[in-house]
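> @MW can you paste both from yesterday?
MW: sure, first one:
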Amino acid sequence: MNFAIVGCGHIAKKHAEAINNAEGANLFAVCDTVPERMAPFIEQNDTKGFTNLDDMLALKEIEVINICTPSGYHADIAVKSAIAGKHLVVEKPIALTIKDADRIIDACRENNVKLSVVHPNRFRPAIMETRALMDAERFGQLSHANATVRWNRNQEYYDQAPWRGTKSLDGGVLMNQAIHNLDLLVWLMGEVEEVFSMGATRLRNIEAEDVSIGTVRFKSGALGVIEAATTIYPRNLEETLSIFGETGTLKIGGTTAKLIEHIDIEGMDDQVTNDLIDGVKSDPLGKPGHQCIIEDMIEAVSNNREPIVTGEDGKNALALVIGLYESAETNRPVKL
């Protein structure tokens, strides 16, 4: 299946690698307004390069478009690609507004093409094991959850590109760094009913927030706490996700939420518990998440089913971020 990448910045390298490693995938073309950014992809992958999106979309050989541009450009490119009959793999976040997310979802539905949003952490072994426990209702009635991203993004990071840290093209720590963890929070805990949040720009010279604290009420009645920051000195400290229920406690941690640091499930003996922890520790990342997304798209198209991470999933994570932003701006609770 022929894939094409739009936007040849930093994240595009992961997409190219995933396509090259995925069974049944071929990187057919790349597109960027700056030819110099495309050059390494063309040379290393022996692929076609385009500076004009319309010219590339005209190629019937291309079946899937991977959108890797700054987030504020996702919607226009996605809609145009869907109208051209191309399936879509869209980097996170799906868009920066609910209106734009709906535009993408509607365009894909109207043109009968598949849409997947890149939330690759769902495919990590620790997350997949947790999801299986949740599906088996091993936690009983849920009490609350905690999602924490304590990372470092220094000023040099934001200065690498003029769009970074802007509200119109990028967003802050919630929209850019923490959205993967927030996607996991919603995927595991269920729909969010209400949020309350405070945010600030404390240490970085950017337009958006570099630190945010929020609380969540899920539709199940469970509660949640969110902490996200790019102000941690001097390097990434942790990304954790903890779940607490009447018959189970679990904490996923590490610098990038990939290890089961604690698990205690009613009825699960010590040997099974230790095997689960050690099994995840032996291969904490598993198959690269971007590769899983690519292979899942191939299967979704071939079998005419929905991808595992859908456009609606991407919209749910986005809605949580936007709700937190609105609450911080208005200083009041916001219902989603």
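MW: second:
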Amino acid sequence: MKNICLCLSFHAPFALKRYRFFEIGQDHYYYDDMQTEEHLSWLVNESYLPLCRTLKEMVQFSHGKFHCAIAIDGITLELFEQYSPEMIDLLRELAATQCVEFLATPFAASLASNFDADEAARQFKQHADLIAELFGQKTASVWNTELLYSDEISEALLKAGYKTVLTEGAKHILSWKSPNYLYQSAVSSRQKLLLRNSALSDELAFHFSDPNWHNHPIDAEKYAQQLSELPAEEQLINIWLGAETFGIRQNAQTGIFDFLKALPFYALERDMCFVTPQEAQKALTPSSPISVPFPMTWAGEAKDLAPFCGNDLQQEAIHKLYAVTERVRLCSDKRLKRDWLMLQDAQHFAYMNHATSDHGHYESSYDAFTNYMNVLADFLQMVDEQYPTTIENEELNALLKTINNQEKEIEELENKLSRKK
């Protein structure tokens, strides 16, 4: 039987305000709240709310046979709580169906997995705690930011306890292999890999309403038939999309919501079923190991990190940011720690990409870089005030060791208390 794994990624980026050089050291608030709220409202009303309502209807009309997965970073969830609480209510309703799996993702939609494994681990835990609090689920499958993955990241995720990881089915990794199988990490057979079918996913994301597309028009019956005609041995079809595909990239007038609503009917009619990543890894046997020696994402043509750190501007911004990780960790200032998370959003660096025309609310990649670096300069200055760069590394490491030991002791005590309860 063929298994369809539909996953949707939600991310609502917040806007940095126009921050001039002369404001460094004077103004420590970096955000354009009005623009963030306006953009979020647009995303929610045009895409996220109608999409989640459609998913709920799909579960109901299929009598619980439709299953899917959702990835939402922590910052986006907090923006929902602040500006669109109806989204949280609707997501809770989806969680209550027990047909939707919420995926683990870095709290700040960051690329920390590639630059600081300890910071990434902290963000995954922070996100897991929020998902448990809001939706009563324990995260078990990883959707890293931009589907970022490598053998090194695999090892770190295993250490953090994650044995199911979703990533891109890039051609340079798969070669002649099909993405329509369950695989395992080359690092450990204990970790299962689900690979996105980019062709089938992008057909919906980018070509659904394209009159020049060879398969136009795309309707649910034809698409389900296309899936059912794949080779019998290919049992896992991973269709993963940005949530904004529904209502924004493909607006409601294209019929994209009607297509989605009808898809389970035609798929179930053809003896296909819908599964979450956890259900897939439990039901299927991995076909072979997959090695990813260099970082891979679902972004750009090359499916690598180039859209985020492919030029000198991006590299300078990222390296300066993560150079102070240990000092930020020592800080007790909650606002500083909050700024630290907000400044890690991968979207900041994507706006600095020369190869795209999407620079957000900036005029150019240089404009995005200049504004971000002004903000970062003020942030680094505040970090330096608490833990100056004059502190020797040995002294800093001693402080970090003390903190690590305290955290381990606290965790052990909490575990003992939990067992006694």
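> thanks! The CA atoms of residues 327 and 384 lie 8 Å apart.
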